């Protein structure tokens, strides 16, 4: 995985200048990215992933996974570490209340993974309510806890899952993309990045990354006149949007860290939401 913390520190001055984040929030993201990195390293180093995922060679997306009772220690440790980071920076959010529900035993972990992979927002909302946590906060905790497990599962499997259907969903885990790239050097090739496992895959140039529609009349692009690097690709059919980075002429995909670009371009999200579009 990319070293998001290092890339964030490199862009710190630029971020502070734009005013999207203050010092305190940058420190929070640094600790969060470090947590992801440490968890991925420890899982890939052990060679025994706590979440075992199976992908059939002829099918894309994780359809089968399992969590053994003996894996609970590392899952709990990771959740405790995340809860501590959140408590340090957001004292108003009691993430510890969620921990008991999420990692009570291996069945509860399997249940929450299934909810995330099937995008069952109703079930997620119920769990958030049970833990007396806001939906957004609860989803943030779950995604950031599971993220390193899915990144390492993908890295350990080491078999690129083909995207033969040219899907808008991650060919590995089936999650929505969180951002996209457009590479002008490769005839405007469009790539998407998974919001959960950080997989990158190629997608059609003109299609909604949320619902997949190719109806031109439903698709609209918004750009910021002052900063043409970012664009919002919005869809009137589903009401969703994807924020996309247009790479510079000599910029390689690997040199562009979307976790950081996402932070820098936060004002674009505010603009898209003001127009009534939803982030997937
Ligand atoms: Zn994925
Ligand atoms: Zn759409």
What does this structure look like?
The chain is an alpha+beta fold and 280 residues long. The chain folds into 2 domains: 4-157, no CATH class; 177-279, no CATH class. 44% of the residues lie in helices and 18% in strands. It contains 10 helices and 9 strands. It has helices at residues 4-10, 12-18, 23-46, 72-89, 96-102, 106-117, 121-130, 135-157, 258-264, 266-274, and strands spanning 51-54, 64-67, 177-183, 189-194, 200-203, 219-224, 227-235, 240-246, 278-279. The strands form 2 sheets. Strands 3, 4, 5, 6, 7, 8 and 9 form a 7-stranded mixed β-sheet that branches. A hairpin with a 5-residue loop joins β4 (189-194) and β5. α1 (4-10) runs antiparallel to α3, α3 packs antiparallel against α4 and α3 (23-46) runs parallel beside α8 (135-157). The longest helix has 24 residues, at 23-46. The protein is globular. The two termini are 22 Å apart. The relative contact order is 0.12. The mean pLDDT is 90. Bound molecules: zinc ion (2 copies).
């Amino acid at each position: 995985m990319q070293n998001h913390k290092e890339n964030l520190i490199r862009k710190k001055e630029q971020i502070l200048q734009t005013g999207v984040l203050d010092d305190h929030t940058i420190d929070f993201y640094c600790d969060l990215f470090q947590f992801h990195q440490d968890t991925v390293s420890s899982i890939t180093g052990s060679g025994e992933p706590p979440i075992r995922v199976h992908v059939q060679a002829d099918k894309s997306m994780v359809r089968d996974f399992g969590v053994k009772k003996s894996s609970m220690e590392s899952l709990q440790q990771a959740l405790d570490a995340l809860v501590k980071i959140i408590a340090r920076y957001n004292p108003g959010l009691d993430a510890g209340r969620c921990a008991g529900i999420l990692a009570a035993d291996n069945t509860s972990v399997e249940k929450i993974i299934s909810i995330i992979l099937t995008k069952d927002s109703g079930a997620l909302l119920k769990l958030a309510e049970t833990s007396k946590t806001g939906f957004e906060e609860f989803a943030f905790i779950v995604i950031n806890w599971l993220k390193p497990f899915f990144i390492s599962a993908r890295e350990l499997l080491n078999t690129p899952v083909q995207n033969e259907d040219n899907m808008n969903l991650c060919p590995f885990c089936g999650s929505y993309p969180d951002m996209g790239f457009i590479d002008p050097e490769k005839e405007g090739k469009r790539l998407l990045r998974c919001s959960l496992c950080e997989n990158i895959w190629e997608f059609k140039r003109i299609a909604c990354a949320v619902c997949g529609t190719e109806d031109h009349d439903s698709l609209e692009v918004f750009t910021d006149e002052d900063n043409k690097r970012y664009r919002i690709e919005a869809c009137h059919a589903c009401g969703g949007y994807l924020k996309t980075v247009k790479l510079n002429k000599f910029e390689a995909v690997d040199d562009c860290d979307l976790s950081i670009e996402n932070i820098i371009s936060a004002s674009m999200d505010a603009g898209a939401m003001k127009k009534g579009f939803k982030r997937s």
